[in-house]
Amino acid sequence: MPPFNEDWEADPAPLAVAELRRLIAAADTLLIATPEYNGSVPGQLKNALDWASRPHGSAALRGKPAAVISASPRPQGGAGAAADLRKILRIAGASVIGVGLAVPRAYAQFTPGGQLADPGLRRKLSAVTGELIQAAARRQAA
């Protein structure tokens, strides 16, 4: 994904940008899971969301239900990244639902098979995805 370029926003030359916009527009919802880097979202994610937020008024993110999951080795679980991502999504026009999920000490939260080890985190993840499914159903019914 090339760096966002306002000169290309209406007709993006890079094929990856058009494909990103198409995939987001076709999705019922977005569930974005992000690590935290230097207390915020990775630059590549911000860049992709900048592309998806344009052109203004008809962007792929406009009105799209979205939920946020963050993870970090820190005890806060990427709360800084989650807060920034929620803000970016809201400004971009997405409909951010719920409070999301922050996974603290991510390095210790998963089984060797990649499953969440903590039943409490599994319940919270289920609640986030359930809320996202309900938001998609409400949007489709409208």
The CATH architecture comes to 3-Layer(aba) Sandwich
Shape annotation: globular
Highest-level CATH class: Alpha Beta
Judged by helices, strands and strand pairing, the structural class is alpha/beta
The radius of gyration over CA amounts to 16 Å
Helix percentage range: 40-55%
What is the H-and-E element order? HEHEHEEH
Largest sheet, strands/sense/barrel: 4 strands, parallel
Q: Going by CATH, what is the homologous superfamily?
A: Flavodoxin domain
Tally of DSSP β-strands: 4
Oligomer: single chain
The share of residues in extended strands comes to 5-15%
Unreliable stretches, pLDDT < 50, 5 or more residues? none
Distance between the termini: 33 Å
CATH overall fold name: Rossmann fold
Q: How many structural domains in the coordinates?
A: 1
**Average residue-wise pLDDT:** 92
Number of helices: 4
Description:
The protein has 142 residues and is of the alpha/beta class. It has four helices and four strands. Strands 1, 2, 3 and 4 form a four-stranded parallel beta sheet that branches. The protein is globular. The N and C termini lie far apart (33 Å).
